[in-house]
Amino acid sequence: MAFVTAGVPQLLDAYDIATGDAALGVAVLRPLNNGRELEIIGGITYGLTEKVAKEAKALPALRTIHLNSPGGRVTEAEMLRAFIRDHGYDTYISTECVSACSTAFLGGVRRFLHPNARIGFHVPSVAGATERDRKAAEGYAVADAVKWGVDPRFAEKAFATRHDDMWYPDASEALAAHVVTDVSDGGLAFSGLSASPDRVAVAQFLKTSEIYLAIAAAHPGVFDRLVDLFLDGAIKGTPEVELYDASGQIVHDLYEARLVAASDALLLRWMELQTAIIQAAMQADPQSCQAEVTAHGAPDQESPDASEALSQWKHDVLLEVLRHEHDVKPVTWNQAAAVSETFWDAVEARHGGAVVPMIERLNIVDDPLPESCKAALIVYETVARMPARQGAMLIRWLITPVG
Known about the structure:
Elements: H1 2-19, E1 28-32, E2 37-41, H2 48-57, E3 64-68, H3 74-86, E4 90-93, E5 96-98, H4 100-105, E6 111-113, E7 118-120, H5 131-147, H6 152-159, H7 171-176, E8 182-183, H8 199-206, H9 210-218, H10 220-236, H11 240-259, H12 264-284, H13 289-294, H14 308-323, H15 333-351, H16 356-360, H17 372-385, H18 388-399
Parallel strand pairs: 2-3, 3-4, 4-6, 5-7, 6-8
Antiparallel strand pairs: 1-2
């Protein structure tokens, strides 16, 4: 049985040599986030650990190793795993880490997985080996993973997967089995696009999102700004949360600019959404409702307690606003005065004159009233009872930037 503990790694390595490292490609090392992180992108081939050690020596602030790899040599992956653990580094998968890469990943003190990333497992391949040899390889892989803290049942399932197949556990399974210790919250560097990020790669990545795809089609100039932002972030290794905060502001500004020119029907659907947002905020936490009112319930700003249906509604309205170019003329002062008079008459008739000062103070962000949410609901519900054309005209007037 010495073959199981000694012979299997050599046999696996012989397979890798037989098939050739060229098929995997040479891994590229990319320092990220001012040297705090290092990305390994590409195959795990002979000599990689030595290269990583040399690169790490030049990065005294290094804390996290990104692994985005299709796998490679098992013994090299084991060496890399040991190097990572010995130096106290964390590991992170931003896109995909499969086969021998999952072995190296286990070296991290903390092991982070991006919410959209995948880690993949299968039994190591053994070229020309007998069934007994393959079983030995499976047993070796299971025992090795368990030694590194992986739950035995998970390891058995992972390495029972045929080599021509791949098992991708979901994040909850990987967390429960101690393969992954944390799902990333966006604080790590943006990575995983390619060994040499360029505008084409960034554009392709952004277009996997419905929001960015809609912007690319209807607002190419804004999309170019987003590509520039993410390309710079990919090259520098900017923390992902910073990129999405910056891009979110660009999207939000575009959304607000386009909303003013939206069709009457779309504006009224937007108003229905605002009503639902405020009602949900009042139910969940009345104290935080003011934040929703002053932010106008922007569809790209989701509250943690938002229901799935409400989140989808926000997403759909945002998409519709971004996708369509509308040629709606601005509301004139005379039109605004006429519909405003109709609005205030309706408010006083239904709620009495005492609510008027409360509604008038809605725009005073620095001095909000506790009744702000109630006042906002009165506004939206009153507009909903007005004729559609008048209601849309009033909403358009209220959201038109001053000056």
